[in-house]
Amino acid sequence: MCGITGWVAYRHDLTTERDAVAAMTETMVCRGPDAGGTWFARHAALGHRRLSVIDIDGGAQPMAATRDGEVEAVITYSGEAYNFKELRAELIRRGHEFSTSSDTEVVLRSYLEWGAGLVDRLNGMYAFAVWDLRSEELLLVRDRLGIKPLYYYPTADGVLFGSEPKAILANPLAEAVVDAEGLAESMSFVKTPELAILKGVHEVRPGGMVRVSRSGLSKSRYWQLEAREHTDDLDTTISTVRELLDDIVARQLISDVPLCTLLSGGLDSSALTALAARSLDEPVRSFSVNFAGYTENFQADEFRGSPDAPFVTDVAEHVAADHTDIVLDNADLLDDGARKAVLRARDLPISMGDMDISLYLLFQEIRKRSTVALSGESADEVFGGYAWFHNEKAVNAPTFPWLAMHFTGERPDLLRDGVADKLDLGGYVRQRYAEAIAEAPKLPGESGKEARMREISYLHLTRFVNSLLDRKDRMSMAVGLEVRVPFCDHRLVEYVFNAPWAMKTFDGREKSLLRAATADVLPKSVVERVKSPYPSTQDTGYDAALHERVGTLLHAGTSRAFELVDPAKARRLLDRGSSAVARRQLELILTLDGWLGDYDVRVEL
């Protein structure tokens, strides 16, 4: 995986802006610690930081393609094309010659052969930019599910772009400004496609392309979920899911560097670990995260019915994995350096608190032994794993189902009255929900529960999962670890999206199709385990430390967080003691304090 950035300016000579482009590229070192490079033309400059995974000795970027000694196109590319070997063979048959074994060159030459139509042929996770010297046009492309990030910032005569906002903000043309819409987005627990929170900054939509030319900027979508009739019976559907998973995992195990899996003991990660173990010629390497005293003192709550550790052990022993358990304590979770690193990785005022920090620390430890990891992200969205998929009240609520069960109404209670009025989080969520539902595809005549569950699935695959993919990308790339997400393969997503809801719950449980498709490779304990989310520390000492830190901010009275947060409401929050809601609100105050101050953000309400 890598970090990409660049600048297009049609009324400016960018060969004079080497320092600015170098600064933009330097912000991506965490994503690409192995090598870096820049490329310049009069009206375009591209930057790249490389994490070497495929063709370690070759594949340097930005990469240029020439004909008769003339450069035709240059690419800066982040990601993996899992079908690059097939594409390479086809391109060779069509007369192309290759000088490397990298998938980057395959993507670049695919562009020369098929233009923007290359996207229809790619299977993988990717974000890339191609500068075509023949037309002096820039093409920005993002993978179908949005696994890899790509931001852009239109300017008066072109565009700035980067894998993360920090690359754009390193350019003197960009300012860190947030308005009411951006703040509402960051606090609403929704993920609106294209909206990037910072004013003027946009995301390339998953499955989308952005073209930049002298005539301006245009956007298009090359992929989106479609409603199709599912004609397979249950047995065929289960076997097709397994066939797809076998192929997907085998493709995503290709790597020239050490590889591992993330193992939580849940169905998703356990299935990937087991399938990987069957495909590898050596024991699969796996990692999990735990907290000191967590298993011994575990208390079930509405989210988690059991600790992960016993199930992790069962899977590791079942598949003979080379397993490592990373154990963290409060000192780790509260470490100022780790918290600053997480904020720097996020770039934005979005935080899952200790769950972000523990994930970052887990990845930091994994990176000492592996460069690539397989993760079970998105299986819940694809197969219907979350509790609210199966809660009638949440399903029928006129809002995002995860908000119907959790979170609703928390954060306006913390904000200053004037700020809360301007953000109007309730109205913002209603607007975004209406937009999402209007997009959701349906089969002709589809109605009732089947139609509603298709809508629920669509909301998760186009909104909810993007928040989790973004988090996984930021925390992993902050330490130079590439995380692959097999359940995001668009073939699997399309197939399961169109399977009837009755099939997805045929055994009366969540993720019925996935369980049936992988039960033969899993220990019985995991097959029967109820869904449990990523762990969060239950140590009350962690909450006490959050209270103390917010109390310190209140006493000092200089934190910029209180431009938005009402100090009196924050004091009342401290008086109420510990709870899940209080923890989230305290984390919000600390996140705003760091973000507004460290990034010198200007608030425009």
TrEMBL record:
Any one Gene Ontology BP term: asparagine biosynthetic process
InterPro entries referenced in this protein's UniProt entry, alphabetically: Asn_synth_AEB (IPR006426), Asn_synthase (IPR001962), ASN_synthetase/amidase (IPR051786), AsnB_N (IPR033738), GATase_2_dom (IPR017932), Ntn_hydrolases_N (IPR029055), Rossmann-like_a/b/a_fold (IPR014729)
Listed GO MF terms: asparagine synthase (glutamine-hydrolyzing) activity; ATP binding
PROSITE patterns to which the protein is assigned, alphabetical: GATASE_TYPE_2
Catalytic activity: L-aspartate + L-glutamine + ATP + H2O = L-asparagine + L-glutamate + AMP + diphosphate + H(+)
Pathway the protein takes part in: Amino-acid biosynthesis; L-asparagine biosynthesis; L-asparagine from L-aspartate (L-Gln route): step 1/1
Pfam families: Asn_synthase, GATase_7
Keyword annotations of the record: Amino-acid biosynthesis, Asparagine biosynthesis, ATP-binding, Glutamine amidotransferase, Nucleotide-binding
Residues where ATP binds: L262, S375, G376
The Glutamine amidotransferase type-2 domain, residue ranges: 2-215
Active site: C2
Signal sequence, start to end: none
Family, as annotated: Belongs to the asparagine synthetase family.
Name this protein carries in UniProt: asparagine synthase (glutamine-hydrolyzing)
Lineage of the species this protein comes from: Bacteria, Bacillati, Actinomycetota, Actinomycetes, Pseudonocardiales
